[in-house]
Amino acid sequence: MWSAIKWFFRTLARVLNAIRMLIINLLFLVIVVSVILVFSAKEEAPELPASAALTLTLTGPVLEQDATATPRRLAEKWLSGDTTPPPMTLSQIKEALDRARNDERIGALVLRLQNMSESSLTKLDEVGEAIEGFKTSGKPVYALGDYYTQGQYYLAAHADEVLLNPAGAVTIQGLGVYRLHYKSAFERFNITPHVFRVGTYKSFVEPYLRDDMSEESREDTRRWLGQLWQHYQDNIVKLRDIPADHINPSKEQLLSRFGAVNGDPARYALEQGLVDRLASRNEMLQTVAEQVGWDSQTNGYMSVDIPAYLSHSESRKHAAPAVGLITASGAIMSGDAGPNTINDEYLGRLIDEARLDADIHALVLRIDSPGGSAFAAEQIRSSLLRFKESGKPLVVSMGSTAASGGYWIAADADRIYAAPTTLTGSIGVFGLFLTFEEAFEKLGLHTDGVGTTDFVGAGLTTGLPEHTKQLIQMGVEHTYDQFVELVAKGRSLNPEQVERAAQGHVWTGQDAKALGLVDELGYLDDALAGAAGLAELAEFSVKPVKLPSSAKEILLEQLLLDSGAFGDWATAALPVVLRPAGEQLKQELSALSRFDDIRGQYVLCVACQEF
């Protein structure tokens, strides 16, 4: 008895101590957050100089929508002394370059792309269009770089003068799709994959069944990948006015030309016309300073970055009727899916907000998604159909990817715009379940029991009986038929036409237009203008659709919803040579984490999201 009493009070003391430590930690967190917010508060920015270059410094990928700057991330940056600017959105870049074009204070545009990660050709094309728009002012554009990766060079090629460090290089390798395959590993660890699919080319599940690509998947991927690569080459050839084999030489040509410059990659880039001049960092700064002047305080050219410029220059606001804009970026999931995903409930609320807003006369849904949960995609589609019942036009603008579930939610739009390099289609459905009954048996663990029907007991440790597999396959086939039917109805096509474009095929925007899956080739601005035209608006403003957040929601979002941080830390902690492998593994795990459909049915194109 006494031992029981002692155990009770000892346990009570431990609980009270845990509560005390929790309260102390929460108070400490509040103090840290307060300090970080104070230090991160924007100071009054100095006035813009009379003459300066607008510097476009890209860090990370080009985003469709703002990333949340949580206190945790602010604390990390502050404590580590990281002064790298956050990633920018397409809209920020385009707005700044549009304003700067006619701003007499801006004498040049400078591209600093050193920290830009690989982004899709579609996003880079939109940034490139903004750069070309700036160039109509007659002001020069300079690209300054110690080196250029493939994506960085694609943007740098828009510059009037591309400068490269003599110790640097331009790396253009081509495009590829490579995925881990698990079949042999599953066999070794006695894991049983149960795959259900409709669509010969729905290749997402192949790595769980094979150790290599199927010929059907290889054929389909090679087709759309080749189109993207041709688009890359054609644009560089046009912008730089150089032969195509300077971008894509044969291995014999590359070895011969590289040998002619004694293996000097910078000299090779100059000889091939990829860059205009080799210059040291100081020489690069002096080149721009000749145009806009020297800043003795910073020991560089007179410069203003895009965030500072946008805070100083005035946006062109007017009271014209509005076209609403909703951005749906990421994998489509149900419930509280976290950052970089499309939450079906939240997106439905945004669509309802646009439907009920009397100021919004038409809606553009910007989709950048490889798909995800079939159930969640259908909930979003239902919200869009309800919006159409209001009589307001609905237009879809496809970003880098609007495939599978991304196309599911697009199909009913009054008009669909896609970029030539958009990846879309992938009309197919799959289900995937992993069970471990054989692995458990190897460990000496066995599951046994009784149930009242033949459908009780199937699961991770017991496997799937044949009749359950048949039920799941019939459900997947039904969802596929539903997919084909809704595309046929939404696009005014007959089922046979849709079937030819379906079966999991991935299409570029160019091919999708020929197949009737999209209406026009164009970017977001084209879609906004098209929506205004359908609403018969002579002039219009753009109104991003947002929901008001309560103080509680803001606090929870900032303090708790930062789940992507751990993956970033883990990748950054790897040695540089191992980071590509770490990034690939992170992508594979990220794909698996999206399997939240309540019926286990997915409309998802994983390979698409890399482009």
UniProtKB/TrEMBL annotation:
List the InterPro entries hit by this protein, alphabetically: ClpP/crotonase-like_dom_sf, Pept_S49_pIV, Pept_S49_SppA, Peptidase_S49, S49_SppA_67K_type_N, S49_SppA_C
The molecular function terms of the Gene Ontology recorded here are: serine-type peptidase activity
**Domain called Peptidase S49: residue spans:** 134-292, 387-537
**Which residue positions does the secretion signal occupy?**
none
- Transmembrane domains' residue ranges: 21-41
A Pfam short name: Peptidase_S49
Q: Where in the cell is it found?
A: Membrane
Top-level taxon = Bacteria
Residues at the active site: 202, 404
Record-linked Gene3D superfamilies: 2-enoyl-CoA Hydratase, Chain A, domain 1 (3.90.226.10)
Gene Ontology CC annotation, any one: membrane
Query: Would you identify the family this protein belongs to, as annotated?
Result: Belongs to the peptidase S49 family.
> PANTHER family under this entry?
PEPTIDASE S49 DOMAIN-CONTAINING PROTEIN, PROTEASE 4
Name recorded for this polypeptide = Signal peptide peptidase SppA
